[in-house]
Amino acid sequence: MKKEGKPLSELAKIMQVFPQSLINVDTKSRPEISTVPEIVSAIKAVEKKLGDKGRVLVRYSGTQNMCRVMVEGPTKEETIEYCKQIADVVRAKLG
User: Fold this and answer.
1) What is the pLDDT of residue 22?
2) CATH number of the structural domain spanning residue 64
3) Torsion angle, alpha carbons of 41, 45, 46, 52, to 10
4) Coil, helix or strand at residue 70
5) Within-domain flag for 71
6) Which domain holds residue 30?
7) Cβ-based neighbour number of residue 21 at 10 Å
8) Cα four-point dihedral sign 89, 52, 80, 25
9) Has residue 30 been placed in a domain?
10) Is residue 4 part of a domain?
11) Nearest to residue 90, comparing CAs of 71, 66, 54?
């Protein structure tokens, strides 16, 4: 605000909010996500489909035996579908 010399209400107008979907997957083990090729592949496939129109975050809970899969995308339907795709792979490999 100080740098731009504009009120927050005006600066907030440039921010685009995307629909978000979150699925928590119970896990039996917690290997580094980057070491599970099937999960990495599923994440990359969704990221490729989304391009610059969304984002993917897959991480373990800090307090529970679960993996959190979050997808933001241009439509609610897409975010739900992509989130399910990744969560299904996580469930198959770690659940």
Assistant:
1) 98
2) 3.30.310.50
3) 120
4) strand
5) yes
6) 16-94
7) 19
8) positive
9) yes
10) no
11) 66
Q: For the chain, how many structural domains are there in total?
A: 1
Report d(CA 63, CA 67) in Å as an integer: 11
Residues 6+ apart with CB under 8 A from 10: none
The Cα–Cα gap between 37 and 45 comes to: 12
Q: How far apart are CA 36 and CA 32, in angstroms?
A: 7
1 occurs within a structural domain: no
Both tokens of residue 61?
């809970």
Q: Tens place of pLDDT for every residue, the chain, 95 residues?
A: 788 888 888 888 877 788 999 999 999 999 999 999 999 999 999 999 999 999 999 999 999 999 999 999 999 999 999 999 999 999 999 99
